[in-house]
Design brief:
The chain is α+β, with helices and mostly antiparallel strands. The chain has a domain at 30-97: Arc Repressor Mutant, subunit A. The chain has helices at residues 12-27, 30-39, 46-51, 57-69, 88-97, and strands spanning 44-45, 73-78, 81-86. The chain has a three-stranded antiparallel sheet. The chain is elongated and about 55 Å long.
Length: 100
Protein backbone atom coordinates (compact mmCIF):
# COMPACT_ATOMS: atom_id res chain seq x y z
CA UNK A 1 0.00 0.00 0.00
CA UNK A 2 2.91 2.42 0.51
CA UNK A 3 3.29 2.74 -3.27
CA UNK A 4 0.05 4.77 -3.33
CA UNK A 5 1.41 7.81 -1.55
CA UNK A 6 -0.84 10.17 -3.52
CA UNK A 7 -3.80 8.81 -1.57
CA UNK A 8 -2.35 9.02 1.91
CA UNK A 9 -1.96 12.18 3.97
CA UNK A 10 0.11 14.31 4.43
CA UNK A 11 2.32 13.39 1.48
CA UNK A 12 3.42 15.87 -1.18
CA UNK A 13 1.42 13.96 -3.77
CA UNK A 14 -1.68 14.15 -1.58
CA UNK A 15 -1.41 17.94 -1.51
CA UNK A 16 -0.99 17.97 -5.30
CA UNK A 17 -4.14 15.86 -5.68
CA UNK A 18 -6.03 18.27 -3.43
CA UNK A 19 -4.77 21.28 -5.40
CA UNK A 20 -5.68 19.69 -8.73
CA UNK A 21 -9.12 18.76 -7.42
CA UNK A 22 -9.77 22.38 -6.43
CA UNK A 23 -8.60 23.64 -9.82
CA UNK A 24 -10.80 21.15 -11.68
CA UNK A 25 -13.83 22.22 -9.64
CA UNK A 26 -13.20 25.84 -10.58
CA UNK A 27 -12.70 25.31 -14.31
CA UNK A 28 -15.39 22.64 -14.71
CA UNK A 29 -18.22 25.14 -14.29
CA UNK A 30 -19.67 25.89 -17.75
CA UNK A 31 -19.92 29.67 -17.34
CA UNK A 32 -16.31 29.89 -16.18
CA UNK A 33 -15.19 27.81 -19.16
CA UNK A 34 -16.98 30.24 -21.47
CA UNK A 35 -15.26 33.18 -19.77
CA UNK A 36 -11.88 31.47 -20.13
CA UNK A 37 -12.55 30.84 -23.80
CA UNK A 38 -13.28 34.55 -24.35
CA UNK A 39 -10.25 35.62 -22.32
CA UNK A 40 -8.03 33.40 -24.47
CA UNK A 41 -8.51 36.01 -27.20
CA UNK A 42 -7.38 38.92 -25.00
CA UNK A 43 -8.35 41.11 -22.10
CA UNK A 44 -11.95 42.19 -21.53
CA UNK A 45 -13.91 44.20 -19.01
CA UNK A 46 -17.01 42.78 -17.34
CA UNK A 47 -19.29 44.85 -19.59
CA UNK A 48 -17.71 43.24 -22.67
CA UNK A 49 -18.00 39.79 -21.14
CA UNK A 50 -21.70 40.45 -20.52
CA UNK A 51 -22.17 40.94 -24.27
CA UNK A 52 -20.95 37.39 -24.92
CA UNK A 53 -22.88 35.65 -22.12
CA UNK A 54 -26.39 35.53 -20.75
CA UNK A 55 -25.05 36.26 -17.28
CA UNK A 56 -25.53 39.22 -14.99
CA UNK A 57 -22.70 41.59 -14.15
CA UNK A 58 -22.63 40.33 -10.56
CA UNK A 59 -22.43 36.67 -11.60
CA UNK A 60 -19.61 37.35 -14.08
CA UNK A 61 -17.76 39.31 -11.40
CA UNK A 62 -18.22 36.40 -8.97
CA UNK A 63 -16.82 33.91 -11.50
CA UNK A 64 -13.89 36.22 -12.26
CA UNK A 65 -13.12 36.52 -8.54
CA UNK A 66 -13.00 32.72 -8.25
CA UNK A 67 -10.73 32.50 -11.29
CA UNK A 68 -8.52 35.28 -9.92
CA UNK A 69 -8.29 33.60 -6.51
CA UNK A 70 -7.14 30.44 -8.31
CA UNK A 71 -4.41 32.41 -10.10
CA UNK A 72 -5.96 31.85 -13.52
CA UNK A 73 -6.88 35.45 -14.34
CA UNK A 74 -5.54 38.84 -13.36
CA UNK A 75 -7.01 42.30 -13.58
CA UNK A 76 -5.84 45.71 -14.64
CA UNK A 77 -7.72 48.91 -13.84
CA UNK A 78 -7.94 51.43 -16.68
CA UNK A 79 -9.89 54.51 -15.72
CA UNK A 80 -13.22 53.41 -14.32
CA UNK A 81 -13.10 49.92 -15.82
CA UNK A 82 -11.30 46.80 -14.70
CA UNK A 83 -9.98 44.57 -17.47
CA UNK A 84 -9.39 40.86 -16.99
CA UNK A 85 -6.86 38.67 -18.77
CA UNK A 86 -5.31 35.25 -18.36
CA UNK A 87 -2.21 34.79 -16.25
CA UNK A 88 0.61 32.59 -17.51
CA UNK A 89 -0.93 29.76 -15.48
CA UNK A 90 -4.32 30.57 -17.02
CA UNK A 91 -2.89 30.50 -20.53
CA UNK A 92 -1.35 27.10 -19.87
CA UNK A 93 -4.57 25.72 -18.42
CA UNK A 94 -6.79 27.04 -21.22
CA UNK A 95 -4.41 25.76 -23.88
CA UNK A 96 -4.71 22.30 -22.32
CA UNK A 97 -8.47 22.51 -21.79
CA UNK A 98 -9.35 23.72 -25.27
CA UNK A 99 -7.02 21.32 -27.06
CA UNK A 100 -9.71 18.68 -26.65
Amino acid sequence: MSSYSCCSSPSKESKQVESLSTLLKIVSEESRLKLLCILMKGEHCVCELMNHNDLSQSLISHHLKDLKDAGIVTNNKKGLRVYYSLTEKGQHITNQLFKI
